[in-house]
Amino acid sequence: MDLKQIRTGRWGAGRLGSVVLAGVLAAVAGTFVVQARTPQDLPGSVVASVAYAGLPVQGREVMAQIQRGGPFRYEKDGTVFGNRERLLPGQQRGYYREYTVPTPGLSHRGARRIVCGGQRPRAPDACYYTEDHYSSFRLIVR
């Protein structure tokens, strides 16, 4: 049986064809529904949190610098974070800013960052910590 026969209803009882077609469509749609995941279900997404006191010493220092408005150690600190990985809650571009958390013993920026969101950089709505260069984030809670 080919698609033309199905469309024209020449392959048997019309109602049976509609039922079969509906079943196939439901199965295909069900596959997409099962595969769809919310951001909280995605690996590395923001589902965990870290207490402010649980941050490394350098992270707490960066949080204090954020509240003071600087000065920051790296030129990139305070610049817009694009959230390309989409692991943080969706917001308009410019909402998130990133800051480097220095890693002792490294001569470069390393992988640790704090990303804060909000319209007022000195008083962010929320801040997130990553120690694996944006592969995962944890909400910083006080």
Automatic annotation (TrEMBL):
InterPro entries named in the record: N1-like (IPR000026), Ribonuclease/ribotoxin (IPR016191)
Keywords (A to Z) from UniProt: Hydrolase, Membrane, Nuclease, Transmembrane, Transmembrane helix
A Pfam family that the UniProt record links to this protein: Ribonuclease
Keyword hit for Lipoprotein: no
Gene Ontology terms for molecular function: hydrolase activity; RNA binding; RNA endonuclease activity
Chain ranges passing through the membrane: 12-34
Leader sequence segment: none
Name of this chain's protein: Guanine-specific ribonuclease N1 and T1
Species this chain originates from: Hydrogenophaga taeniospiralis CCUG 15921
Upper lineage: Bacteria, Pseudomonadati, Pseudomonadota, Betaproteobacteria, Burkholderiales
